[in-house]
Design brief:
Blueprint lengths: L1 H8 L3 E7 L8 E6 L11 E6 L2 E4 L4 H19 L3 E10 L15 E10 L8 H15 L2 E9 L6 H5 L1 H4 L8 E8 L4 E2 L6 E2 L5 E9 L9 E10 H5 L4
Parallel strand pairs: 6-7
Antiparallel strand pairs: 1-2, 2-3, 3-4, 5-6, 7-8, 8-11, 9-10, 11-12
Length: about 240
């Protein structure tokens, strides 16, 4: 499986884990391209058996890097350097050579986390920023799932960010006031190999949650609002 990756992509891959075949599991290998640095989970590659050959979910990671660069530039324009951005690719069906005028043709999607201090973007103004962010995504034809979190303070401990799902979300770490999620694209999962595929968005779905100021029961919320909009309707908000 490693030889398959090395030969197909003409670069060296590092073995991480191997799962043998059983009744409910295809033979599976997990590896990293050496060029990205060992242990960078964002660039994990999964190889599975498919009949007499293999399938993999490796993509041109420079596409992901470009999407991150553009998003960081947008966020810096909005907030300077007082934000935190974490991105994890979900789907990539495009190469760098196919990206034209910084447009990804709805063929790249990521799960993005944007963390903002309350003093930069109060919870009451969160949706206004989300619409502006959605316009950026639409301009560059970027798909994905996006969560914008408003924090009381920015964690300084790197360990918090490495486990931000439990240490920040849900206010368990005492940092989060609430969040706004934006789904700018529906996903289809290919049952044959488990890959995600992006499509041009027809709707935007949003979830809006504000935590109660109750340290003993932080999972309770003051508001839990979900809504679905057409693209045109959502992008026209606040005009």
């Amino acid at each position: 499986m490693i030889s398959y990756l090395n030969e197909k992509y003409e670069q060296e891959f590092i073995y991480v884990d191997y799962i043998p075949k059983d009744l409910n599991q295809s033979e599976t290998l997990i590896a990293y391209p050496r060029s990205t640095g060992y242990g960078n989970g964002k660039y994990a590659v999964t190889v599975k058996t498919k009949g007499d050959t293999f399938t993999d979910d490796f993509h041109d990671f420079s596409v992901a890097d470009l999407a991150e660069t553009l998003t960081n530039a947008f966020l810096t324009e909005q907030f300077g350097d007082s934000y935190k951005f974490i991105s994890s690719p979900l789907a990539c069906d495009i190469t760098m050579g196919e990206v034209i005028d910084e447009k990804f043709q709805w063929k790249f999607g990521a799960e993005n986390g944007i963390f903002l201090l309350e003093e930069l973007c109060s919870f009451d103004r969160l949706e206004e920023f989300a619409v502006k962010y959605a316009k950026f995504l639409y301009e560059h034809e970027l798909s994905g799932r996006h969560r914008i979190e408003v924090l009381k303070e920015m964690p300084k401990d790197p360990g918090v960010w490495s486990n931000y799902g439990s240490d920040i979300y849900g206010n368990r770490g005492g940092y989060s006031l609430g969040f706004y999620t934006l789904y700018c694209n529906p996903y289809r999962v290919d049952d044959e190999n488990g890959a995600y595929h992006c499509f041009p968005p027809t709707v935007y779905r949003t979830d809006w949650i504000k935590y109660r100021a109750n340290p003993e029961r932080p999972w309770l919320v003051e508001s839990d609002i979900s809504a679905t909009y057409s693209v045109e309707e959502y992008l026209a908000k606040y005009e």
